[in-house]
Design the sequence.
């Protein structure tokens, strides 16, 4: 094993720590040690002026502050009967800067020693976070055996070695990434969670929307989409309209969003070509029509709603659009690849009810506009803390 | 009609005269492809295009050249396909397929001869091709390189292939050819990188020196690969001149999707659009046309594609108009410079990039 580990560079941790992970004590769910460490990390981040420039980093800092952790722990009444599985191995995606943070935080709160493979590409907010973790560890020697943040060039042998020592593996990435990593076998009792490429959509009640603060809605929707290049799994690709005054609502909604995109979004030349290509591919074979004033927003109106249209999805401000007579028309879109439903003026409870009642395979999250990228221990329909821990049962707990 | 163009020499029309001629033909071609290519019709319908309302060349709708990689686009029945040109792009990516019938293939040839004739004169000249005969062997399935070589047969009195099938220089034969034609006007053609790798570097190794001061080195295929070896366009010319006195360079810019309507480089180092085609750099934020001097994404129109809807496409190259009707070489119309490929985006999101290295 040592030989394979030579290719690893340690951003935080060391080879000794990595090799010792198999032996460290698993911690209880939401352990005191993990919580105080994360709360201290939060304090340092919130006090760091560099962090202010990155809303996703600030979101993380708020998410792990003491009060927030306390609130989250409330959802786990049996937390003293649960402990971590052992070692969790996290493979972070190369282009969502803060996904690794969510991943290791869940691993740690579930009581595991975490080894996190970071992408080769570095993001400034990720570097700030890593620096702050290192800094916080100075006061938390007891946490050191639990954390390794590493990088290594694509290498099947290293992935195999790390996989063979873990009790849980989390893979963030597209289908091909998951396939490639799954070639490395896991120990018989290890579990795996994969966070594959998905799509998300928005449902807007036109009449309710017209009563709302349209500027505030645009700002939130911008966070859901343009802020992450409309490329996260949780970014809406399709906007479905309901209600009476749909044309008026569309005009207001898109013009407010356009204003924001014009002032805040930097469109790269290749994105204009990518968006035109995506539209042409869809238009050549499907019944669609294009509405656009410039290249910041492409609106592709659909004659009918079917999940296959997502084969033409594109980021950077490319939206399919559909007018519904009834919310139930949405059901065919709620297939396995569908992750998040973003609600504007519609009640998430009603949508959840519809998903549960219809027994569809997709739609893991139904959240208000602005919250599609919000960090949560419930991700892709999985409760990460539950999944990464084990229940120590006395026989009286059933 | 394309015949209206043949009465003019390729660079004699001023921009307004040229655009008048182009507009009529491009509008007719838009109608033609709309009526004969279903996916093209669908795209135009989805864009809300009204062909009757095309009043200027820049109004002609365009789609990304990448679409030829996504779909089989043609405006002829399949049994009329005379040749298929493929462009490979980068290894592992989809190839684009361009379908020509006899008519389009003839027009492509004819225009290519007219354009090069403007630079080389009417007399056919012997041509040393820095490539292997294998490249043109399969006539059903041409690569862009093969298509370029075949196209140039028409301007050459004979073609000699300098490389064997393993891309090694056939030294004896090439030396003999060069000895025979030294000091005379003749042609050398090769893709930029191949001319450098398989001709310049070989010349450098030889003890014998040749006088190629009257020869024309015709190149195409772009400068990207050479730039990655830190060889600039200027250095390329200077080094060739040094090793064999080569004085005439005729680079050109074109793409497999618009074969024939090439943009040739004049004595002043400017690429010129002939009367058969034009170039419109566009702003990426809204695709509005750029001013002279303002870089943009290159849209290309050409009146040659009859068998496939490639008469108006937007490339992934960035370029800049240097001027209109006023190049010191005397050629009329737009002249420009290609700045290179637009950058691949590095975007945030959950797309699949990790697997690329596995």
Sequence:
């Amino acid at each position: 094993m040592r030989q394979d580990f030579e290719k690893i560079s340690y951003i935080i941790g060391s080879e000794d720590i990595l090799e010792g992970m198999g032996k460290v004590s698993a911690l209880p769910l939401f352990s005191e040690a993990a919580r105080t460490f994360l709360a201290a990390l939060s304090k340092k981040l919130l006090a760091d002026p560099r962090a202010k420039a990155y809303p996703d980093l600030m979101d993380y800092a708020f998410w792990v502050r003491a009060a927030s952790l306390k609130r989250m722990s409330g959802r786990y009444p049996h937390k003293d009967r649960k402990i971590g599985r052992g070692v969790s191995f996290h493979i972070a995606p190369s282009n969502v800067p803060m996904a690794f943070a969510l991943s290791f935080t869940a691993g740690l709160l579930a009581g595991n020693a975490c080894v996190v493979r970071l992408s080769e590409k570095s993001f400034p907010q990720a570097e700030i976070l890593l620096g702050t973790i290192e800094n916080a560890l100075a006061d938390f020697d007891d946490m050191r055996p639990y954390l390794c943040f590493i990088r290594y060039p694509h290498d099947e042998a290293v992935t195999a070695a790390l996989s063979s020592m873990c009790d849980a593996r989390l893979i963030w990435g597209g289908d091909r990434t998951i396939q490639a990593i799954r070639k490395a076998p896991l120990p018989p009792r290890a579990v795996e969670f994969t966070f594959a490429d998905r799509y998300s959509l928005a449902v807007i009640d036109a009449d309710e929307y017209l009563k709302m603060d349209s500027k505030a809605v645009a700002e939130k929707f911008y966070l859901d989409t343009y802020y992450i290049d409309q490329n996260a799994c949780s970014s809406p690709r399709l906007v479905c309209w309901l209600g009476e005054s749909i044309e008026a609502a569309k005009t207001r909604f898109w013009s407010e969003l356009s204003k924001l995109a014009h002032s805040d979004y930097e469109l790269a030349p290749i994105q204009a070509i990518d968006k035109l290509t995506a539209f042409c591919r869809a238009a050549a074979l499907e019944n669609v029509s294009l509405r656009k004033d410039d290249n910041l927003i492409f609106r592709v109106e659909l004659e009918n709603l079917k999940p296959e249209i997502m084969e033409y999805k594109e980021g950077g401000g490319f939206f399919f659009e559909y007018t519904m007579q009834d919310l139930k028309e949405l059901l065919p879109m709620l297939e396995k690849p569908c992750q998040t439903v973003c609600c504007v003026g519609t009640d998430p409870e009603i949508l959840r009810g519809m998903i549960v009642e219809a027994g569809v395979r997709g739609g893991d999250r139904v959240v208000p506009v602005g919250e599609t990228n919000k960090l949560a221990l419930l991700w892709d329909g999985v409760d990460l803390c539950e999944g990464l821990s084990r229940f120590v049962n006395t026989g009286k707990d059933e | 009609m394309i015949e209206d163009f043949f009465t003019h020499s390729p660079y004699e029309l001023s921009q307004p005269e040229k655009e008048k001629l182009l507009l009529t033909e491009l509008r007719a071609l838009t109608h033609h492809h709309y009526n004969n290519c279903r996916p093209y019709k669908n795209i135009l319908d989805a864009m809300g295009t009204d062909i009757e309302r095309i009043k200027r060349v820049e109004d002609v709708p365009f789609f990304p050249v990448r679409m030829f990689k996504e779909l089989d686009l043609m405006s002829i029945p399949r049994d009329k396909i005379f040749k298929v040109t493929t462009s490979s792009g980068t290894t592992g990516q989809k190839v684009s397929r361009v379908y020509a019938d006899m008519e389009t293939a003839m027009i492509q040839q004819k225009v290519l001869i007219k354009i090069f004739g403007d630079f080389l004169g009417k007399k056919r000249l012997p041509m040393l091709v820095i490539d292997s005969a294998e490249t043109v062997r399969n006539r059903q399935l041409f690569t862009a390189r093969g298509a370029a070589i075949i196209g140039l047969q028409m301007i050459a009195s004979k073609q000699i292939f300098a490389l064997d099938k393993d891309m090694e220089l056939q030294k004896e034969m090439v030396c003999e050819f060069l000895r025979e034609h030294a000091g005379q006007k003749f042609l050398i053609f090769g893709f930029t990188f191949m001319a450098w790798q398989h001709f310049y570097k070989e010349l450098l190794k030889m003890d014998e020196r040749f006088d190629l001061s009257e020869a024309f080195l015709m190149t195409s295929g772009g400068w990207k690969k050479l730039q990655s070896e830190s060889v600039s366009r200027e250095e390329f010319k200077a080094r060739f001149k040094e090793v064999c006195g080569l004085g005439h360079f005729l680079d050109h810019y074109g793409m497999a999707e618009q074969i024939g309507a090439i943009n040739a480089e004049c004595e002043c180092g400017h690429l010129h659009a002939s009367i058969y085609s034009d170039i419109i750099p566009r702003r990426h934020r809204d695709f509005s046309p750029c001013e002279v001097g303002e870089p943009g994404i290159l849209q290309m129109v050409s009146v040659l594609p009859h068998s496939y809807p490639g008469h108006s496409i937007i490339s992934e190259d960035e370029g800049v108009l240097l001027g209109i009707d006023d190049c010191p070489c005397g050629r009329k119309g737009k002249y420009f410079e290609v700045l290179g490929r637009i950058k691949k985006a590095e975007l945030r999101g959950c797309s699949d990039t990790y697997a690329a290295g596995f």
Q: What stands out?
A: Chain B touches chain A through 38 residues (CB under 8 Å). Chain B has two domains: 3-100+254-341, 106-253.
